[in-house]
Amino acid sequence: MDHHTATGRTGAPPRPVPFFTHARSFEERWPAIRDRLTEVADDGKFSHGSQVGRFEQALAAWTGARFAVGVNSGTDALVLALRAMGLRPGDEVVVPAFSFMATASSVALAGGTPVFADIDPVGYGLDPAAADAAVTARTRTLMPVHLFCQMADMGGLTRVAERHGLTVLEDSAEAIGMRWGGVHAGLLGAGGVLSFFPTKTLGALGDAGAFLTDDPQLAETVAALRHHGRHGRTLGHFPGINRPTDLLGVNSKMDDLQAAVLLGKLPALAEDIRRRAALAAAYTERLRDVPGVLRLPTLVAHEIPTEPVFYVYLIEVERRDALVAHLAEHGVGTETYYPVPLHLQPCFAHLGYRRGQFPHAERACERTVALPLYPDLGTDDVDRVCDLIRRFATGRAAR
Ligand SMILES: *Cc1c(COP(=O)(O)O)cnc(C)c1O
């Protein structure tokens, strides 16, 4: 696809910039993916096949985890990890008020109670002081979330967990490639999850997820829970379902076709991450002095060197909803992550939280918008999106 035809000088409407597409990069990687899919079709094993185990090994090697357990989504990885960690009814898990629904719903679905705390307004991660204040005698676990381009303050949060004797489960669904002092996201506490939802940094062609851990017992239990409680020593191996078990499991196996797709895409992941960083830098350069843009992605300095990954390019703006409508009118897709803070979601009304309790989370919900960011994007697309934002801000928006 030619990236230099979007000027509109010919009078044709400029090419739309979707919020996400992988049309070009998928075509490039199709031969590698096709070979894998053909293998699956040839041996006829669409479930319990060999691709999942191979992907688990490749993923463990890529992240440095001792174990990677493939499951059918990041959400299920969270639920099964919490269950494997022994969460009991009445147990509390401290989660940030600003995140994807699964961060909190997984706690409730695993039988515990989510307890919300406010975020750091710059990096959008769970704030250690707020998390500390939310701990009660019933708290078992802290669940930091690594949103958009950087990890939550794992130094501060680990100290809070140690002080209160809590386990740490990282919602690292967005964080493949992010590292803290060289350690991959998900491996700083008991374990962490990854999501391979199609728009994520490493996306499948459907739903898939994984649990990362260095703890053999946790890996084994999550592996058993994903397949009706069947124990088996080898990850990626799905023991038959007719043996007795003490675990009430579910069917949350990773699909072999998705594992094949992910195996085909994994070799290009590092290059994709570099491309995302270059595009993010291009956005930042063009948006730096635009009026009405209240905050650009800001990497927070920590006591230890960290490696960001631009999964999402998220900005804070004045009149967010009007800007979203303006961009949509001109064919530019955006996404609002997340319009409603978790403590104000109707499904958690019974927990009794009120508006005003977590001002940083609430402000982020009102002001933030994610711009298109994916390896297929051209810098001319970035130019176009930034021009539209500038015109909107300076009141020169074409009506
Ligand atoms: C995507 C995501 C999830 C859930 O992953 P799925 O694979 O879609 O179930 C959980 N938490 C966060 C922060 C996410 O971004």
UniProtKB/TrEMBL annotation:
It comes from the Bacteria. InterPro entries: DegT/StrS_aminotransferase, PyrdxlP-dep_Trfase, PyrdxlP-dep_Trfase_major, PyrdxlP-dep_Trfase_small. Its EC number is 2.6.1.-. GO terms for molecular function: transaminase activity. Keywords: Aminotransferase, Pyridoxal phosphate, Transferase. It holds the Pfam family DegT_DnrJ_EryC1. Belongs to the DegT/DnrJ/EryC1 family. This is DegT/DnrJ/EryC1/StrS family aminotransferase. It comes from Streptomyces catenulae.
